[in-house]
Structures are given as structure tokens and as C-alpha cells.
Design a protein that fits this description.
2 domains, 5 helices, 67% helix
Length: 159
Amino acid sequence: MLTRVKEEKKQSAQSAAKVVAEKRAEIQAINLRLQRLFDSFLDAVIEREDYTAEKTRLMSQKKSLEGQIDGLTTGRADWLEPFTEWVLTAKNAGKIVESGSLPEKRVLAFKVFGSNLVLDGKKARGSCVKPWSLLVETSPSGGMVRGTGFEPVTPTVSR
């Protein structure tokens, strides 16, 4: 799973870089149009009102593209960091439950169940919060041990 996260991060960075390059090319084209517009104004080919209206429109487009570039470069894979942390915690949950210290178990229980634990028969019980609830919903046993036990089912040959 972690390798898939790394691949996704790499693909996200590559696609963001491609989009950023396209946006920068659009900005260069707008800069050229602004320069031609300014030259036309200086040569008295267009009126001041037309010049200011067109300049305002082009500058607005340029600012919008620069904002999109900033958004792509700063937050391109922000969602992957919490997901990576969640995968690592889920991977280590079994070890923590079996041999972890009490504070580690408490932190894991808080992550899995939130603050809605209920004491029932001297045992803490609760409903899993998302994304932990998705593990219970998608597991074949629904989060419970099968009725037949822990052993894998052995195939039988019938004749």
C-alpha cells in the first residue's frame, strides 16, 4: 500500500509539473499580448479606454493563472500525508494491541474509536470512526472472527 502511495505522490507531482508548465506558457503568451497592446497604445493605434479595458482583462487572466500555479505547487499532494500516516497506523495496530504499552493502546483506541468509548462489562466498546470504520465494513468477517475459528479452511476432496 505504501508503494502505491509513493507512486501516487510521484504521479501527482509529475502531473502538477505538467499543468504548471502549461500555465506558465499561457502567462508568457499574455505577457506578449500585453507588450503588443502597450506598443499599440504608444503608437496611438488604440484609444486609452480600449487599452485600459483590455489591459485589465489580460492582467486579471494573468493573476488568475498565477494563483492556480501557486495552488498547484504548494498543495499538490497534501492528502497523501495523512493517508500515509493512517496506513502505517493500521499496519502497526495489531502489534500495538498485542504487545504495546497502555499509552500506545490508548492513543490507538482514540484514533480508531474517537472519544465515544463506552464501558460495558469492564471492557471499552465503541463504534469505529472514519476511515477506520471502512476497514470493518470491507473485511470479509465484518471485523469479527469467523465462527469456525482462526484456522484457514482446508479444501476437501469429494469423490
